[in-house]
Each structure stands twice: as structure tokens, then as C-alpha cells.
User: Fold Tyrosine decarboxylase protein from Dioscorea alata.
Amino acid sequence: MGSLPSEVFSPLDTNLYSKESHAMVDFIADYYRHIEQYPVRSQVKPGYLSKLLPDTPPIFSEPIDTILEDIKKDIIPGLTHWQSPNFYAYFQANASTAGFLGEMLCSGFNVVGFSWISSPAATELESIVMDWMAKMMKLPSMFLFSGGQGGGGVLHGSTCEAVVCTLAAARDKALSKIGHDSITKLVVYASDQTHFTVQKASKIIGIPTSNFRALPTCSSSDYALTADTVRKAMESDMAQGLVPLYLCATVGTTAVGAVDPLFELGQLAQEYDVWLHVDSAYAGSSAICPEFRHYFDGVELADSISMNPHKWFLTNMDCCCLWIKNPNLLVDSLSTNPEILRNKASDAKVVVDYKDWQVALSRRFRAIKLWLVIRRYGVANLMEHIRSDVALAEHFERMVTLDDRFEVVVPRKFSLVCFRLKPKFEACEEANYSELNRQLLEDINNSGRAFMTHAVVSGTFMIRFAIGTTLTKKRHVDETWKLIQSKATDLLNRKYKK
Assistant:
């Protein structure tokens, strides 16, 4: 119930802030020291927390030590530990000390940088950091503020926000030519490997669900979207009086890490006057390494490109970079100028007002987090971070190929390996492949010693082994492979024992 207040209520007492912040930092540091002791995937049942916490809030204040103890006792068991070195599921969401410190500054200053005048440093640092990041990735100068060609970048919270904004800009640009009552004619194109956020964004900005095209891919192209497939779809739509609007190409798809051919798709987008967006949420970080930059050849033909430093760039959630060749299209689509926000700098159009580059008005000081990560580690260490994860993935892939019970289903891309257990008998049907591997995956995850997720591509069920957690070392990969082999042995013995 808490205790009666003994002092005047002061929610931002600097002495107390220092003391309790130290307690919180120590608590988090202790969590990381012992993170391998927890089951990677939470083992709780739905509704567990309502049985542990009171159904009414406390009337009086409670000490931070009591709250931290309850977090340890009640909250941590319900966490799936994304920062565990044995987390290989979904996608990277790696953290770092610099990322934590940047997040502390972001929360500590707690500025709301919707316009330049609301906090000039927040706006100007973001513009600088976006140019830094673009230069690290060797993006064309047309995407940079400093490139002198009108481009620029903005930090969003997620890829979904970035896609919503670029789709809105593309929509309004198109409707200004064909009439605003023609929105039902607009068509959005992506591959069947493109992240579902593009379909969600299409619905949000008013594109009919029937006008979204998830175009097929196949193993012969390593599940990349081909220009020929897109061309046929666009020609078919135009023959029916529809208007191609937006094409999303991906570098590093969620399921298998596929890479779409940007140059060919870019030429096609220009031919049909279609907005080309490049989603490199996961793999964009790899572009800082020269050996991976070729995957981005052709990006100069795109209208916009996004990547997420909060995935593979040691920058804690949330942080998504979006670059656009013509920011005026964003501003035209998303801007509002109420009297209460007017000021001399904005009226003179000599500053960036990031409120006009996003859906929301309010925005966090994300730039200071990314700035601190880049400064604290430097390009050399960030490149080493990417390369070490790729090396671990290569190592895991080699181990898979050496066990004739397993097969790599899709050639490794970046730090993602997709594999499966082969059936006992060659005549085993695909459905039995899937059943076997679903059970193997469940056995692994139920052990609490590792967590992986799956994908189904062209009807093929596969287990995804996504390396990228900051704490993952070679020993973790080796131990997890032994776990996989052990669970496979147990499963095959149960399934096929005579």
C-alpha cells in the first residue's frame, strides 16, 4: 500500500534522482551479468501477471528498492530476453553501453523537438547524424542535406512509420495529377518476402486492400523480386485502368535475408513513374562494410531508403533512419502550421521542422542516441561488430552442412541462416518435413536454453538462426548447435524408433 508521505512531494529532486538512477543502473547491470541464467523465451502462461499484481494502484509512494524487487520477482520471468546471447529469433535488436547512455540522455533532457525552435540542437544534430550515417553507408549525395541536391534524412521510431510517410507522399503526388477521387486506382507493389509493414501502411493511407500486390518469388532467384515479375503485374494493372504507385524493394528480407535487385527495379520504377522505396531495416547496417556495399548498387534510383540502427547497429530501440531525395514531398503531405507553432525561423523557411517529416507532432531526441553510439565506438569498431556476426553465421552454416541429418534451405545472407532437419526417408512428404521441424523448433525453445523462430517460404518450413545479439560469442553458437543436435536425436528416436 505504500507509506504516508513524510516530505513535500518533489518528483524531480536532483539528489533523489542521482541516488535512484544509480540503483537502477546497478539493477540493469546485474540483469546482464546473470542474463544467461534465465530461459531465453519466457515460460509463463497467458494472464500470469494479473495473478501476481494487485488490481488497484497504490495510494501512497513506494520505495524504489521494493519496486525493483517486484520487477525481479514478477516482471523478469515474463520477459523474453532479446539481449540473451542465446536469442536467435525474429531479428537483431542489439543493445550497447553507448546505446543505453544515449537513451539516458534522450530521456533525461526529455525535449520535444517538433520544430527547430522547440529545441534547435535536437533538430540540427539529427540533420548532422543523418548525413554521417548516409556517408558511412556510402549513400549517394542526393540523399544528404549536405549533398546540395535537396535531399535529407529523418529519424523515425520504426520502419512502419517511414513507409507510411513515404507512401503518403507518393499518394499525394500521384493524386495531384490524376485527381483525389482516384485513390481507388492506386496500386502498391512488393514481393511475397517483403515485410508485412508495407501492406499495413498501404491500408493506413487509404489504398484498397485489393490494390496491394504481394508478387511471387522463388528459390531460383534466392527469393528476390525480379523486374520481369513487377513489369508483368504493372502492365496487367494498367490494362485494367489502375495506376502503379509505389514499389518496395528490400535488402535483407525478414524470412530469409533475400536481396532485391535495386538497379533493375529502379530502372523499372523510373519507366513507369513509380515511387521506389528501399527497405533495408535489417541489412542496411552492413553497408558500412565495403564487402557488403554492392547489395545497395542501384540505390541512387530510389526515391527513399530506410534502415534501422536499433536492429544491427548497437543503438537501442527505437531508431529508424529514413532518407528521401525530395523532402518537400513529405512536407507537402504531412505538414500543418497552426498559429501556436509559428515562429520567425520557420516562417523564413531557413530551418528544418521535423514535425512535417512524420505522422506525429511530438518526437523524441533520438539523434543524441545514434550520435553517441557512432562517437563512442567509431566506424572501425562498428564494422567489426557487423563482420563478427557474419563470421559466426558462416561458422554455424558450416556446422549444419557437416551433419547429414540437416540441410541449409536458403544460402546464407548476412548473419541469417535458414536450415531444417531432413526426413528419415527420402519419400517423406513435405507436410512431414514441416511437422518434424515444427516439433524440433518447439523442443529447442521449450528447453529455455535458446530461442529461434521459423519461416515458411514457397511451402517450405525452415528454422531461422538469426545472429546479432551483442553478447553472442562463438561458444554460444557452438553450445546451441549441440542443443539442436541433441534435440534432433531425441526427436528422431521418438519418431522412427523400431
